[in-house]
Structure formats: C-alpha cells, structure tokens
UniProtKB/TrEMBL annotation:
Function field: Catalyzes the reduction of hydroxylamine to form NH(3) and H(2)O.
One annotated Gene Ontology cellular component of this protein: cytoplasm
Native organism: Telmatospirillum siberiense
EC number: 1.7.99.1
InterPro entries, A to Z: HCP/CODH, Hydroxylam_reduct, Prismane-like_a/b-sand, Prismane-like_sf, Prismane_a-bundle
Keyword match Cytoplasm: yes
The name this protein goes by in its record: Hydroxylamine reductase
NCBIfam families referenced in this protein's UniProt entry, alphabetically: hybrid_clust (TIGR01703), PRK05290.1 (NF003658)
Keywords carried by this UniProt record: 4Fe-4S, Cytoplasm, Iron, Iron-sulfur, Metal-binding, Oxidoreductase
Length: 544
C-alpha cells in the first residue's frame, strides 16, 4: 500500500505497511480499486452526457464510493468488496448503455475494466494503479496534483452525500466530480491542465458547500445561538458522532418518549443550534471532545454510541459492543444501523447503565452561522468602525492527535482582546474555553458550525467586504486552518477559488504538496505554513 492522503501519514511521507489510522494494506488496496471503478463509471457517464443522454443514476453511487475512501470512514474489507461488486455491475450496465448509444469508442482505461471480485485479483490490480506505480510513470508532481484533485472531490462527495440524503443534489457538483474522475483515469495529464482542474475543483467545492448549507438549513432551520451543556444528566444515554444531521434527526424522533437522553460528540456539536433538532428536549448536551478523543470518550460513555460519518477510529473492546455505524461508515465486527433505523441502538442504550449523576454545568454556545451573524451585521460593522473590534481571526478546520496542534489553542488564547475569533470544524475543540469576553454585544468566540460551515465564514466575510466596500483580502480577517483529512482540502480549494490569500495551514503541510506544487500555491495565493504564535499574531496584526 501507499497512502498519504491525510495529515497523520507515517513519517510525514506515506503509510506503506499499515495506516496510522488503522487501515490495513488490504483495505487500502480495495479502496484504490473502488476509486478506480468510480473513474470508469464517470468515463461512461460523461460519454453519455456529452451525447445528450445523462446517466444520473450513477451520481449517488460515485459520491458514496468516494466518501467511502475518505480517511476514517471504512475499515471493512468485506463491505469494500461488495461495493466493488456493485461497481462492476453498474460498470457493465453503463458500458452496455454506451454501446447502445454507439459511443463505445469514447471509453478507455478503467471504463473497460472487466471487474473481478476475486480478492487476490483485486490486490494485484491495486498494485498496478496505486500511487507508487503512478509516481514511477508520471513523477511526483503530476501525481501530487492528481491526488490534490482526488482529495478535493472526495471531500466534495462527502458533502454532496450529506446534501443528497436531505433531498438536495446539484448537476454542477456531480458533473464536476465525473469530469475530475475522467481526468484522473488518464495515465498522464499535463501539469497545467491538472492545476486548472484543481482550481475548478475549488469552484465546484464552493457549490457543494452552498448546496449542503441549503440542505441543512432547509431541513433543520437556520442555526441560532444556543447554550449547550458540555456534560451530562442522569439517565439512559445515546451518543451521536460524525456530521450526519439527518441521522441525528431520525434518532431523535425514534427515541422520543423512550426515556433516553441524546448527546452529541465531536463534529455533531453544532447540531444543537438547529431549530428542528433542538426542539427535542431529550437532545440534552455534548459529551467529550473531538474525534481523536473517541477511544477515551466512548469508553467513558455509559450508553450506546452511533458513528454517522468519519472520523471513526478502530474501536476498543471497552465499547465495541455498544458502538454502531451508519451511512457509509463500516468497521469489521461493528454493528451497522441501516436506512436511518435505530432500534438496535435504542435497545443497546436501554441495556446500558446510563449516567447516574449530573456533571458540572459547563456551557459552550453554538449557532453562529451566517444567518445569525449577518442578522447583526450592523452591530458588527459599527463595532469595527468604532475601533472596538479590530480584527477577525478564523481558527478552524480539522483536528487530530498529532503534535504541534497546541498552536491553535495558544493562538486563540493569545489573540488580542479586541479581536473576534471565528471557529468551525472539529478544530474548534482546540479553542473552546480559550476565548472569553464580548465585543459590541457579541461573544468574542463565534462557533460557526461543522467543517462544511466554512461556507458560513465565506458568507460573513462577503457581507463584511460589501459593507466596507473592499475586497476579501482587504478585510481585517486572518485565516488559520488546521487540516487532517480530505474535506479540509475541499474547503481550502473553495477559499482559493475565491482568491483568498495569506491562508496559514498547519500543523504541517500535506505530503502530497511537493515543492513544485507549493511554489504555485505560494506564488498565486501566498499560502503559508503556521509559524510561532507570537510571530503569526504580529504579522496578522501588522497586515490588518
Ligand atoms: Fe473533523 Fe473528521 Fe469535519 Fe473532518 S471530524 S476531521 S475535516 O472528518 O470533517 O472536521
Ligand atoms: Fe495513512 Fe492517513 Fe492514509 Fe490512513 S488515511 S493510511 S493514516 S495517510
């Protein structure tokens, strides 16, 4: 195997025997093959679409296949093998449709794959298409750009999946995913073409963030500032982690009146701000920290646990019997709750002891999405004009266990008292409790939501730029992002598409960003690695 798609890649260069995430070489290989099948399906879909016969039936499958290969989503070889079987079937059907349309000549590479499901044959195929083999043929820079695009569309697919289960999809988003996969199916593509595709991926990424915002707020209402208990109450309990609001909504409905309290974990914390979720009085609080704390948090949680998306870690025995996955998440020997039906989760919660006592009443306020913030835009603009509010500092993205991430906590704590701190993604757990006080009636810390709610930050920045009559880069706004997995790539590409400059990224730069790729990012966008807290704050303040 060779995988360097996330920040915790071994030695900062690549996982080769087994993933730091726990992914086995076999699972990595099957994920590579599944991605290759998705490329084949996209070649077919585009051949038909260009001839005026769109094959939209493939869109959802391709999204799910890509999402399945995101870090910490699927550790289960058997489920990957059955997805590959389904892909083979869809590919054969699609090829037939292409043939019937007289377009067989448009097919190439992975679209022509015969598609075995024999495990050994799949492992051999994986070795031929993997990053190692491709780097030998095309070089590290081309493959680096191919992978940047791959990770961009993996994140897009995850967000598109969430939007789709809430009833929204976008032809623009799906056709870009197909187009990117078609380009990735070609053995060699020129660097400048790959660069252009990556920038276009930013445009499509912005579209998918907007789509998911529409889906979430359409189904759940606009988030509103809400004080959340960061602890627990006595009683039976279910903990819901991941990003899938639809799963949480279904679980809340199915547990109504059952005497079970529901808690959020990790990236589910912002759910408390949505009117359609917070209306359930048994959604009582948030338990634990970010995803990388789950082995400690889940072991300490005396109820059932539902993991709706990444980031899943290999489960510990202490809680594996009361852990459930849903959606595209899978892990060997962990029960899966299909189709938003949670009877087994509820039974496990009732069988577990639950909390005996109440925790201290620690609180955190969520719900500062673009709707809430722009509705007080007048106050914010007045605070800036009066000099009470000097700077906006966005500290967010995805968190992980790797060293160097205390930078984000220290940065938040050291930010001047006349700076507002915006946060989002699971990176927020680094800044919660580090920023106190209010400016102009607003709290200094504004929690905007999940990682996809970077869209809210973009909307707010756009509204401020308009109010002050300046461009985004002229605002007193600094972006300091933490990255871990592929959704962070999607968000970064969306920001670059908007022309946002001077973004700081850490705790270290991705392994797939070669010096040549970094040079392009620096020359065009002045993207930079995080430095020291003091140095970065001084530079941000001076640039304001
Ligand atoms: Fe975090 Fe995981 Fe939301 Fe990521 S929970 S790391 S960017 O999946 O998606 O922020
Ligand atoms: Fe390694 Fe990350 Fe790939 Fe897992 S997802 S194998 S940790 S690079």
């Amino acid at each position: 195997m060779f995988c360097y798609q996330c920040e915790q890649t071994a030695h900062g260069t690549g996982c080769v025997d087994r993933g730091t995430c726990g992914k086995t070489a076999e699972v990595a290989a099957l994920q590579d093959v599944l991605l290759r099948r998705a490329m084949g399906l996209s070649v077919c879909a585009l051949a038909l679409a260009r001839a005026g016969h769109p094959l939209v039936a493939l869109d959802a499958f391709v999204e799910n296949a890509l999402f399945t290969t995101v870090t910490n989503v699927n550790f289960d070889a058997d489920s990957l093998e059955s997805l590959i079987g389904e892909a083979n079937r869809l590919l054969a059907e699609s090829r037939d449709a292409v043939g019937r349309a007289g377009l067989r000549n448009a097919l190439f590479g992975p679209a022509l794959a015969e598609g075995s499901t024999d495990r050994q044959a799949l492992l051999v195929e994986a070795a031929e298409i993997g990053i190692d083999a491709r780097r030998q043929n095309a070089g590290v820079d081309v493959v680096g750009l191919q992978e940047l695009l791959t990770y961009g569309i993996k994140g897009m697919a995850a967000y598109a999946h969430h939007a789709r289960i809430l009833g929204r999809h976008s032809a623009q988003v799906n056709s870009f995913i197909h187009e990117a996969l078609e380009a990735l199916a070609k053995p060699v593509v020129a660097m400048d073409q790959l660069l252009a595709l990556n920038l276009r991926c930013g445009e499509a990424s912005l579209a998918v963030l907007a789509l998911l915002d529409e889906a979430n707020t359409g189904a759940m209402g606009n988030p509103e500032p809400t004080s959340v208990l960061m602890g627990h109450k006595p009683g039976k309990a279910i903990l819901v982690s991941g990003h899938d609001l639809r799963d949480l909504a279904s679980l809340l409905e199915q547990t109504a009146g059952r005497g079970i309290n529901v808690y959020t974990h990790g990236e589910m914390l912002p759910a408390h701000g949505y009117p359609e979720l917070k209306k359930h009085s048994h959604l009582v609080g948030h338990f634990g920290g970010a995803w990388q704390d789950q082995q400690r948090d889940f072991a300490a949680f005396p109820g059932a646990i539902l993991m709706t998306t990444n980031c899943l870690m290999p489960p510990r025995e202490a809680y594996s019997g009361r852990l459930f996955t849903s959606g595209v998440v899978a892990s060997p020997d962990i029960l899966h709750a299909p189709d938003h039906k949670f009877d087994a989760v509820i039974a496990a919660a009732l069988a577990a002891p639950g909390f005996q006592e109440a925790s201290p009443d620690r609180r955190h306020t969520v719900g500062f999405g673009h709707h809430a913030v722009t509705s007080v835009a007048g106050d914010v603009v007045a605070a800036v004009k009066s000099g009470a509010l000097k700077h906006f500092l966005l500290i967010g993205g995805c968190d992980a266990a790797t060293a160097g991430r205390s930078y984000y906590s220290d940065l938040a704590a050291a930010a001047p008292k006349d700076w507002a701190v915006l946060t989002l993604g699971c990176g927020k757990f680094r800044v919660i409790d580090r920023v106190e006080g209010n400016i102009g009636g607003l709290p200094r810390l504004l929690d905007m939501g999940q990682c996809n709610d970077a869209y809210s930050a973009i909307k707010v920045a756009g509204a401020l730029a308009e109010a002050f009559g300046v461009g985004l880069n002229e605002l007193p706004l600094s972006l300091v992002l933490s990255w871990y997995e592929q959704k962070a790539v999607t968000v970064l590409l969306a920001l670059l598409h908007l022309g946002v400059r001077n973004i700081r990224i850490g705790p270290k730069l991705p392994a797939f960003v070669t010096p040549a790729i970094l040079k392009v990012l620096v020359d065009n966008f002045n993207v930079m690695a995080i430095g020291t807290v003091e140095g970065d704050l001084a530079a941000m303040g001076a640039a304001a």
